[in-house]
């Protein structure tokens, strides 16, 4: 990731880390451009103008931040897209929890977790100060109770859990009817998010394909003078 970001910055790209996008709207003085209202790590607001925008956001999030950019018919189309949330937890331990297993799928009806991954059986513990990393996750539409993941044990050095509200789009039987395409009805606005990996499950390899598709479409974009 560091190599790739350095590569892009050498070619003029800018990265705004730990920053938040609050609003997307059309520029008041020039309807051909977009204005992004953001918030820097210092909490100060920032306004930046762009000729084109690629949204990698889940559609429910895009619908929250866009301000009169999308036509109503397209908003209705995107509003049909549903998501599964997910809860993840990472444990740093002195001993491996799964000594001989990397990936363990959990199919027990009463288990709150779907998978346990002993990451340090894939990437050696020497890269983590000789500690061991266990990752656990499950799909859920609301955060799990803390007692289901917060544990007290002598082997646990550190633990942290995160709830992700938009972890996986739901591919319903009629999903193909309202799946967003790379090109939107708004000139200069493109979509390259998880919803574009249909009919495949989300994955890094499919994300690369979606990214290339958006880059190819963007390379053909010309702002009207």
Describe this protein's structure.
The protein has two domains: 18-81 and 171-219, FAD/NAD(P)-binding domain, CATH 3.50.50.60; 83-168. With 225 residues, it is of the alpha+beta class. The protein has helices at 2-9, 59-65, 72-79, 204-219; strands spanning 20-26, 34-39, 45-50, 53-55, 66-67, 83-93, 103-105, 115-118, 132-139, 156-169, 189-191. Strands 7-8-9-6-10 form a five-stranded antiparallel β-sheet, with no helix packed on it. The mean pLDDT is 93. The two termini are 37 Å apart.
Gyration radius, in Å:
21 Å
Structural class, by secondary structure, is alpha+beta
Indicate the CATH topology of the largest domain: FAD/NAD(P)-binding domain
How can the largest sheet be summarized? 5 strands, antiparallel
What is the H/E order? Answer: HEEEEHEHEEEEEEH
Shape: globular
CATH architectural designation of the largest domain: 3-Layer(bba) Sandwich
Task: List the uncertain runs.
Answer: none
Tell me the helix content: 10-25%
Mean pLDDT: 93
Count of helices? 4
Q: How many strand units?
A: 11
The CATH homologous superfamily name of the largest domain equals: FAD/NAD(P)-binding domain
Protein name: Amine oxidase domain-containing protein
GO molecular function: oxidoreductase activity
Pfam families: Amino_oxidase
Domain Amine oxidase: 6-100
Question: Quick summary of this structure?
Answer:
By secondary structure, the chain is an alpha+beta fold. It folds into two domains: 113 residues, 3-Layer(bba) Sandwich (FAD/NAD(P)-binding domain); 86 residues. 17% of the residues lie in helices and 30% in strands.
